[in-house]
Please model this.
Amino acid sequence: MEGVDHLAHERNKSEFDVDAMKIVWAGSPHAFVVSDRISKLVASDPGFRKDNRSTLSRKELFKNTLRKAAYAWKTIIDLHLSEEEAAKLRFYVDEPAFTDVHWGMFIPAIKGQGTEEQQQKWLPLAYKMQIIGCYAQTELGHGSNVQGLETTATFDPQTDEFIIHSPTLTSSKWWPGGLGKVATHAIAYALLIVGGREQGVHGFIVQLRSLEDHSPLPGMTVGDIGMKFGNGAYNAMDNGVLRFDHVRIPRNQMLMRCAQYTCLCMPSDAKLILEPCILIRVSQVTCEGKYKQSDVPRQLVYGAMLYVRQTIVADASCALSRAVCIATRYSAVRRQFGSQNGGPETQVIDYKTQQSRLFPLLASAYAFRFVGEWLKWLYADVTQRLQANDFSTLPEAHACTAGLKSLTTTATADGIEECRKLCGGHGYLCSSGLPELFAVYVPACTYEGENTVLLLQVARFLMKTVSQLGSSKKPVGTIAYMTRVEHLMQCRCGVQRGFAELSADLVEAAVAHCQLLVVSKFIEKLQQEIPGKGVKQQLEVLCNIYALFLLHKHQGDFLSTGCITPKHAALANDELRSLYSQVRPNAIALVDAFNYTDHYLGSILGCYDGNVYPKLYEAAWKDPLNESVVPDGYHQYIRPLLKQEIRTARL
Ligand SMILES: Cc1cc2nc3c(=O)[nH]c(=O)nc-3n(C[C@H](O)[C@H](O)[C@H](O)COP(=O)(O)OP(=O)(O)OC[C@H]3O[C@@H](n4cnc5c(N)ncnc54)[C@H](O)[C@@H]3O)c2cc1C
Model:
């Protein structure tokens, strides 16, 4: 039945203009055109094949990743792709690789923390991939607590060099992506020691491997840290371990961006909130061994952190929408029970229980998309303000990015797993795409700020705001709602004490604050003009589902704090059921609007035409175990059992 669209009847039910929704999802007509073109280019090129990824051994997988990364680079050069198109191409190739860290962390770190000369020297090499960089911060014994890093960088004024050293086993760099086997250079973070005095953690550009034969340079012990969770997935990445044995680097390889601003006008309370988050310093060491501290660049480091986190929020909507697309299409294909007079069974998407698990995730995918867009705007706004010496919105921007990074990645990881369960048994097959998607996504809850640690920072920001209520300083922006909460006005400094004991509750408050943020940004999106027949109405339904689902899920909190009555709770529940019925006919079109190719989805259950069963059947026969009818090992292990010869068998 090649060429038949098994989901056509579902697509015909939709009540809105799917093409217009595709543009809303992409962000703009331009973004849609670029994304559509590049995704099709990748999907149609056999060089980017990925359907066999989960059956490859680690070594085969890694070599294949190297080939794909090189092939992607060749494609980018041959087709003269712009930076935007190249980034999209890497996105649709959809394989974790050293290039992610090279482009996403190594280059931004040099841009953010390097001097003019350092940028002029290193960036052209990095842009042409004549050097490949990684970001080596985390150590075996130290992750979230960056101030605890043990690697040292001791200045030697005799030779005008730093000596980089790993004094203990726990100081071994551990986790950096690309470090294990590929990177030629690292931004390594180490405790700076000048004239015997410790000056905090700073970044250094360190060459790791020879540019001639790729062998580690003297004093470096470097390798891969081993297999990670799942098949395929993040095992394509060479997360690495590195030990330095008194490695010498020139002084000008310390990242020393100097102050560009003449006046510092960071408010003192902002410093207080940000202090625990700004752990990396950017200062200068002169050839005479003088250490010059500068506050301003520390805020620049902070800006880079905001950038990475806002991209993680954008990625969350991609990963969740992908899982939701698979689960929604398969739920429309799969039928169980309910056959009347020998007719077909019921599509599982028509069960209210399936809808109540699936549709809030569909709504979340859209909600995260829009809050991600807003965060991108916020980042641009903060960057502009920083350039004008205005640090006033930094604490709020930090709370938003840290909190939303935590909220969206946790919900996405949980959501992918829920989508796997929504697909029943077949969701557990690697060919569903969901196990690998989960395995590759779930570390997002840990890297770039462990999620609970981030929520604690948001909680601290909220407590600070609460303690200032009643003073002349009025909360604005995303915390403006606090002025309307009358009983909070009575709270005074008492909230500052006992933070640790109450931290579990405070983390819940931080989550609630972030949920409010997502809801309010979704509502703001709806206040804009949105073209296309029925598009806005669909988004309104999804927005209401997102908000009411949260209210339903946290009903206990709302009831116990007297924010709603039991009657309100029951009404919200009724409304939610009615909204699910409104989404139902549009469900397939709403996931089509993501405009994902079958290649990118990487899932038989989620394929566009819904022709699931023949494809599953065909894929099974391609498994390496099915290469022979009688398995390898029959003669040694199965036959002796069957023939009662186990006692004499050679095992
Ligand atoms: C796939 C992957 C890729 C990575 N890539 C890189 C990379 O390229 N470069 C790099 O430098 N690093 C990288 N990392 C490391 C990553 O940044 C760290 O793992 C992350 O910062 C979390 O730190 P941790 O492992 O020390 O966790 P820990 O902080 O040890 O967390 C363990 C537990 O302790 C809790 N906890 C910690 N502190 C507190 C506190 N103050 N209060 C309450 N609870 C607390 C946490 O919530 C968590 O439950 C990567 C990690 C992964 C998984």
Notes: The two ends are 48 Å apart (CA to CA). The chain has a mean pLDDT of 92. The pocket of flavin-adenine dinucleotide is lined by residues 101, 135-138, 143-144, 175-177, 234, 239, 443, 446-447, 450, 452-453, 456 (CB under 6 Å). The chain has 22 helices and twelve strands.
